[in-house]
Amino acid sequence: MTFRSEASDDYGDVVVQLNERWRVIVCRDQLQMIIQRRDKGTAQRPWRGKHYCTTQKALVRLCGRLCGEVEPAAMAVIHALPETIRLYRPR
Question: What is the pTM of this model?
Answer without folding.
Answer: 0.87
